[in-house]
Amino acid sequence: MDEPRSLAGLDTTKAHVARVYDYWLGGKDNFEADRAYGDDLEKRVPSIRLTARMNRLFLGRAVRFLAADAGIRQFLDIGTGLPTANNTHQVAQGIAPESRVVYTDNDPLVLVHARALLTSSAAGRTAYIEADVRNPEAILKASELTDTLDLTQPVAVMLIAVLHLVTDDDIAYPAIRSIVDAMPSGSYLVISHATGDFWPQEQVDAANATNAAHKVDFRFRSQSEVARFFAGLDLVDPGIVPVAEWRSGDDRTPERAHSNIWAGVARKP
After folding, report:
1. Which of 243, 253, 66 shows the shortest CA–CA distance to 156?
2. How many angstroms separate the CA atoms of 82 and 74, rounded?
3. Are 44 and 203 within 8 A, CB to CB?
């Protein structure tokens, strides 16, 4: 993709994980810095493209569960990433056309594409906020959210492959607590989060070194650390499991070392 110069706040000289993820999934909305980082990390983690695909499939399964089984009609998708197939609103509105979805991301390129491509069904609605999960108040007070979602009714908060980019625990955990606290009883929290739990330490160290070399803030968290995000919520079966195993219905899941993301869904009582 050519380097755009017109988008305020868009830095194409530094890798952005949304665009790297797009690259791993075979997209075209990425730049040289994104591809260089993606290639370097793939050398240390050869299964990274498989992991990205498994994470995307989890998004679809989680939204289908929420819309079809849990009756959720409102979604707050934080850290949306670049549009691809089976986005949150497409899955939800395929089941319940009246579903409403608010997308949030901190990359201006993502929001440009979202506004152009993530169009709602006639019965539902979509909206977009340029904001960062590190600043939950900016999300919760945005008119795009309050005009689209009814916060007296349950909302599914989606954080798919986002929280490992928030490396400071003193920011990450309070941010999610603030968002969950603002949601009514019956709401859900959906998280997928990278982990080094299934790798030898030398592979974790190599991945961390690559992230640091490309100035990408990234932190692996253990299962117990991921579980802290769900404190006070009721986990849905099967709990916090490798992303490829969450209600997959398929015994042919990848080895856990090739699907190194914890995934979970929980309900606010």
Report:
1. 66
2. 20
3. yes
Is the model's pLDDT at 5 over the cut of 90? Answer: no
**Quick check: 50 pLDDT over 50?**
yes
- The answer to whether the bond into 238 is cis (omega within 30° of 0) is yes
pLDDT exceeds cutoff 70 at 116: no
What is residue 22's three-state secondary structure? Answer: helix
Amino acid present at 189 = L
- Three-state SS at 84: coil
What is 60-198+218-267's CATH number, 3.40.50.150, 3.40.50.2000, 3.20.20.70, 3.50.50.60? 3.40.50.150
Q: Indicate the pLDDT class of residue 118, thresholds 50, 70 and 90.
A: low
CA distance 82 to 30: 10
Which of 2, 32, 28, 29 has the alpha carbon at shortest distance from 14?
Answer: 32
Global pTM? 0.89
pLDDT of 96 reads 97
- Beta-sheet pairing, 261-267 with 188-194: antiparallel
Q: Which tokens is 258 given?
A: 């090739």
For the purposes of burial, counting CB atoms within 10 Å of the CB of 223, is it exposed (0-12), middle (13-18) or buried (19 or more)? Answer: middle
Question: Which residues in the chain belong to E strands, given as ranges?
Answer: 74-78, 100-105, 125-130, 156-160, 188-194, 234-235, 241-242, 261-267
Task: Please state, in angstroms and as integers, the Cα–Cα distance from residue 265 to each residue in 45, 91, 213, 239, following that order.
Answer: 26, 17, 33, 7
Judged on CB neighbours under 10 Å (0-12, 13-18, 19+), 102 is buried
Tally of helices (H runs) and strands (E runs) in the chain: 10, 8
